[in-house]
Amino acid sequence: MSIARHQGGFKRWAPYPALLWTTLLFALPLAAMLAVSFTERGTGAFTIDNYVGFFTRSDGAFAAALVNSIEVTLIVTVVSIVLAYPIAYILAYHIPARWQRTLLVALILPFWTSYVIRSYSWLIVLSKNGIINQLLLWLGLFTEPVELGNSRAATVLGFVHFFVLLLTLTTYANLVQIKESYRKAAADLGASGMQVFLYVTLPLSLPGVAVGAFLTFVLAIGDYITPAILGGSRELLLPQAIMLQVTRTADFPFASALSMILMLVVTAAYLAFAKRLKMERV
Amino acid sequence: MRPRHILVGTTLLVAIIFIFLPVVMLVLYSFQDGLVPVPPFRGFSLRWYEKVLSNRKLLEAMGNSVIVGGLSSTAATMLGFLAAYGLARSRPRGSRAIQYALMAPITVSYLIIGMGLLITFNGIGIERSLIAVGIGHVVINLPLCFAITYSQLGEHQANVERAAQDLGASDLQALLLITVPMLWPTLLAAYFIAFTLSWDEFVIAFLLSKFDVTLPVVIWNMLRSGLSPELNAAGTLVFTTSIALVIVVELLLVRGRRRG
């Protein structure tokens, strides 16, 4: 041990370049942003106007954007859980083990396209002459084609498409870890299939669902691209509002304040979830 | 037994259709012999690919993306691996804290990381450029490269390293001649994952670039003028590249597992 310590000069220094990089180019910029969020645009004088402005500017449009963001994100999280659970369950218990990995890899493939291209692809599907419209017209549910993009529903759909995959993964990873003997024991003691699920499998799989739900919430609420492409501009989400401050008005202090508020919401979500999250189980 | 099979099959089928529908539409209508990428399919044509491949802006952006991705992934992999190696082998005081600090960027959205860098660079007078974009991509990929390499640095290599040092190798020699060769599939996997994410990344690239831009930014600008099979073709090329990289990663990791 002592020899290792003597020789350890190089090893001991090895983590510091990365640490320096993260400090200078991640932590410091965040600190700078926090500082800028308390300055007045143009003069640089100290002010809390940017935070007051979150509630008062443009008739409260920014607070409304945060409410929209939280609503959309919650809807996305719930819908994704409901859709992902059966998929994960079937993968874990109804597909032969040697096919599970192949199916998972196949299901995850679209996961690797950028948000921009994935959102654009949904725009094609949802457009006035797109396949969904054609299908609904053919079924007689619509009498004339409707633009399905540029709406909250389209944003939710784009998000759900991505996060169903994520939740399927975390839930599946949890389900395959539940020992088969637990379920067998419950069945031996007379539990019906439904009871085994409700009292054994479901409670034991909740940590995986919780981790997936948390990641979904955090990633969805901070994403700019999906609402910008699919949601249109009728209803703004907070990341869109932040981007507008940068690109249209170059109001960095206000954009910084909005970003800090977004980070605060994510931190709050983390603290609310923290007790339930057992990351190492997934 | 039979109704259950039908239920299982139907659920999986619906899931697969839902997941693949947009990708299939993207690829299919990139071959559209017509002006709009929506049904009906008017026949097979490669003209949109011709258009993409003769679009100078797109090609330049593709080149920029390759350079930014290549350099930033190299930096992220090297920094991440060095940190992982140091933490796994010497366990300095506060190694837990260092680990958390290195992973922290993963919890913050790209938009906020990009904004922070934009404000900082603005403050100290650094122009927006591809270099700035690359710096941002190292920030977001460093935690991943660190986590991937850290998870693969086991006792197995440590023993071989010790053997090498007993035979007189210096720290640096042991690292370069023993650890790196033993770990190369993992290092390459980390590199390609970082490259894929940089290749696809939009928000940071959009905020931090000015005249020279990367591929997702050009695609974004094209998107402003509406749906077009040319966009489908460009998107298909980007998608195919990502998938090819992911398959390489998958093969490397399988290989690493067999060796390790």
Task: Characterise the protein shown here.
The complex is a heterodimer of chains A (282) and B (260). With 282 residues, chain A is an all-alpha fold. Chain A has one domain (59-281): MetI-like (MetI-like fold, Orthogonal Bundle). In chain A, 74% of the residues lie in helices and 0% in strands. Chain A has helices spanning 2-7, 9-13, 16-37, 49-56, 61-93, 97-108, 115-126, 131-138, 152-175, 180-188, 193-221, 225-231, 238-247, 252-274. The longest helix of chain A has 33 residues, at 61-93. Chain A is globular. Chain A starts with a helix and ends in an 8-residue tail after the last helix. Mean pLDDT of chain A is 87; it is low at 1-7. Chain B has eleven helices and no strands. Chain B has helices spanning 2-28, 47-53, 56-90, 95-103, 110-123, 130-152, 155-166, 171-200, 203-208, 215-223, 229-259. The radius of gyration of chain B is 23 Å and the shape is globular. Chain B starts with a helix and ends with a helix. At the A-B interface, helix 1, helix 2, helix 3, helix 5 and helix 6 of A face helix 1, helix 3, helix 4, helix 5 and helix 6 of B.
Task: Summarize this structure as a short list of keywords or feature phrases.
heterodimer; A: 282 residues; mainly alpha; MetI-like fold; B: 260 residues; 11 helices; 78% helix; globular
Spans of chain A of 5+ residues with little confidence (pLDDT < 50)? 1-7
Give the DSSP E fraction of chain B (strand runs of 2 or more residues).
under 5%
Largest interface: which pair?
A-B, 79 and 81 residues
CATH topology descriptor of chain B:
MetI-like fold
Instruction: Give the strand content of chain A.
Output: under 5%
Order of helices and strands of chain B: HHHHHHHHHHH
Mean pLDDT of chain A: 87
